Amino acid sequence: MAAAVTAAVSFPSSNKSTSLSSRTTLIAPERITLKKVPVYYRDASSSGRSVISIRAQVTTEAPAKVEKISKKNDEGVVVNKFKPKTPYTGRCLLNTKITGDDAPGETWHMVFSTEGEMPYREGQSIGVIPDGIDKNGKPHKLRLYSIASSAIGDFGDSKTVSLCVKRLVYTNEQGETVKGVCSNFL
User: Fold this and answer.
1) Do 47 and 121 belong to one domain?
2) Which parts of the sequence belong to the FAD-binding FR-type domain (predicted)?
3) What is the mean predicted confidence (pLDDT) over 16-30?
4) In a domain, 76, yes or no
5) pTM of the complete model
6) Rounded to whole angstroms, how far apart are CA atoms 116 and 77?
7) Which residues of 35-67 are buried (b: 16+ CB within 10 A; e: fewer)?
8) Phi, then psi, of 8 in degrees rounded to 5
9) Mean pLDDT computed over 13-22
10) 14 CB neighbour count, 10 Å cutoff
């Protein structure tokens, strides 16, 4: 469906001729495409503004959707192998504080065993579900952390995954100390 629209456009006054671009596209609730030939104008009004008229066509038809094809499978990237209802339970092999005592906050380097069951690539993230329940009595939700290690892990055997996590600790408006659920669980 298309409809014709006429718009008046006002430009600031100048003594010079001004050229408008030959094509302008605006995206709003509907697609608006303005097609015009180069327009030149010279101030001829006493109000200090020039007015030109532009004819536009408005279309509400969406462009054809292109099906997205993931290249992850072709590249051997494994995604979502484990789910929150059927998680992988790993064992922490190493948990080392990597910030100094005088640093603001604490950052920890953690190495977890995957026994080779959880292949990953650089740039992926891993979901961690902390123990316990939230204030509504439901199990805590999954938190995502960027993987810090290379695909072969810290020990080079592809059987570990590493995270670097800053513990979240802050004081709320009531003066109470609040600790992040997952960063302090880890």
Assistant:
1) no
2) 85-186
3) 47
4) no
5) 0.57
6) 14
7) eeeeeeeebeeeeeebeeeeebeeeeeeeeeee
8) -100, 130
9) 48
10) 12
Q: Which residue range forms the structural domain that includes residue 161?
A: 91-185
Please name the helix (run of DSSP H) or strand (run of DSSP E) that holds residue 128, with its range, or none: strand 125-128
How far apart CA 183 and CA 186 sit, in angstroms, is 5
| Phi, psi angle pair for 166, to nearest 5° | -90, 125
Q: Which amino acid is residue 176, in one-letter code?
A: E
What's residue 37's pLDDT? 47
List the structure tokens of 6: 């006429």
- Helix (H) / strand (E) containing 136: none
- How far apart are alpha carbons 101 and 106 in whole angstroms? 8
Q: Is residue 65 part of a domain?
A: no
Please state the separation of Cα 6 from the chain's center in Å.
38
Instruction: Assess if residue 26 is contained within a domain.
Output: yes
Please choose, from the candidates 98, 133, 126, 131, the residue with its C-alpha nearest in 3D space to the C-alpha of residue 112: 126
Helix (H) or strand (E) holding 178: strand 177-179
**Residues in the chain, how many?**
186
Q: Residue 148 and residue 126: Cα distance in Å, rounded?
A: 10
